[in-house]
């Protein structure tokens, strides 16, 4: 009886333990379905829906590498301090940039809600050394402090950061005096004769009639020494008529600092499928303009009239040899007899990767000292060139 009882008890215990373990078995949860990114084609290629929202997002930008030589425009005066004797030597201008861009779009009951941002990161050899210092006893040159040729990270800049609902736009942009009428051609150095200030905070309203007519009104703050000096903003207004043959555009700007007015008119013509041409003229009053910074020592310039004298003209065009290759030209001239000519050939090696080779010429006219084009004092004529590699995505 004792053995039988022991066996029955052991069997009962095993059953109890097995039941307990069965009750405590781990249950594997069913995997949640993956939420795949959906393509959004409402606003063009490259947009996708941010998961869980109705907002469409696009991320893009470019990586650029410039090599410049000569004495024209942004790469004027590229020099390097000699490590051995402290002298100053001409050298290359080098500049690398990573630009990150974002776009968003969403439909609302008040219209399309859009944003745009662009941030630029730069690494460069500006190569403008401080020059050589001469030993007080005249025995020889000494390296200037900080005159060695540094290659280092340059500026990080927020170039665009705006919000737009319907036709209302607020934020950081470039002036409508330039963006609405258009930049001066498809050349790299398009400001050899400058045509307007750019960076500014804005409150703008855009109107598009849908039949080719559009307009803009923009309240702007300017930048640098041209920011407003009271509560009165700069004001820019513009109208445009666009058709298949091209466009006619006009803009006018009021500078609240000096109570001066500038305007530009532009004609764009699509002559053929391969040839597009433009001509743009500017006129500005300058009675009260008294800028005396290093950029405008002679006075008579401002945020909306940066050219010399009252009037200036820009013209040029693009000829497309084929889908990959184009030739671009721009010529500019102002009342101060400043001349700028820029020409380049742009070639798309593969989609998204372009090499541009440009040659630039500038002539300093009646201005007796340097202006913001970068032409050095006393350089009546200057020539230079740039090779640009750019991967856009």
Major sheet size, sense and barrel closure = 16 strands, antiparallel, barrel
Overall 3D shape: globular
Q: Taking all residues together, what is the mean pLDDT? A: 84
Radius of gyration using CA atoms only: 31 Å
Strand tally, please?
Answer: 21
Compact overview of the structure:
The chain has 393 residues and is mainly beta. The chain is built from 2 helices and 21 strands. The chain has helices at 2-23, 176-179, and strands at 48-49, 56-70, 79-81, 88-90, 93-108, 111-125, 132-134, 141-143, 152-165, 168-174, 199-208, 213-220, 234-243, 246-255, 260-270, 275-284, 311-320, 325-334, 339-350, 353-363, 381-392.
Please, could you describe this protein's structure?
This protein is mostly beta strands. It is 7% helix and 50% strand. It has helices spanning 2-23, 176-179, and strands spanning 48-49, 56-70, 79-81, 88-90, 93-108, 111-125, 132-134, 141-143, 152-165, 168-174, 199-208, 213-220, 234-243, 246-255, 260-270, 275-284, 311-320, 325-334, 339-350, 353-363, 381-392. The strands form three sheets. The chain has a 16-stranded antiparallel barrel with strand order 2-5-6-9-10-11-12-13-14-15-16-17-18-19-20-21. Strands 3-4 form a two-stranded antiparallel sheet. This is Porin.
